[in-house]
Amino acid sequence: MGEGPKVTAKAHPNLALVKYWGKLDDELNIPASSSISVNLSGATTTTTVVFVTGAEADSVMIDGQAASPKAFARVAKHLDRVRQLAGTTARARVESWNDFPASAGIASSASAFAALSLAASRAAGLSLAERELSILARKGSGSACRSIPDGFVEFVAGGADKFQPTTTTIKGEVETCLKDDTAYARQLFPPEHWDMRITTLIIDQRPKEVSSSEGHQATRTSPFYEAWLAALPPTLETVRRALADKDFRTLGMAVERQAIAMHAVAMTSSLADRDWLSGIYYWAPGTVSLIQAVQDWRRQSLEVYLTIDAGPNVHLLCEAKDQAELERELGCLLLALGGRYLVSRPAAGARIVGEE
Ligand code: PMV
Question: pTM for this one?
Answer without folding.
Answer: 0.94
